[in-house]
Structure prediction request, 150 residues.
Amino acid sequence: MTENNPNIQDDKEKPIDSKPLEELTLKEVIEETATEDEAPQSRMFSLRKILGGDILSAAIIRRQVWLILLIVFFMIIYVSNRYSCQQDIIEIDKLHQQLTDAKYKALSSESELTELSRESNVLEMLKDNKDSVLKIASQPPYFIEIPNGQ
Prediction:
């Protein structure tokens, strides 16, 4: 590397104790003592590393934390939307059942009313009710014809 750019020095060429401790600046001391806490991860994650939590400290995961949070946010919205839709479907089914019950009750009431208003039943009720002023006609009705010519 030093062949291409003479301004860049290799860490191998620079001895750690090349200067006395008093002459080192704070920046140089930090650069010399700073090490990565993280060992390079192997390409293959084992089940032990995943269950042990080592995968969460990987640089890949730390770089993609916002993407992971976005995915979790969308998953929460997806689940809540599905729950809301299921509640709406349950409500629709309940209302459909109530509508069907109301239709059957209306049909039953209409049938009873038709049965009670039939001529034979009305006549029977008039016979049974003694205080009614309505009587059954003994003669058939006759029609009065009115001429159109005035």
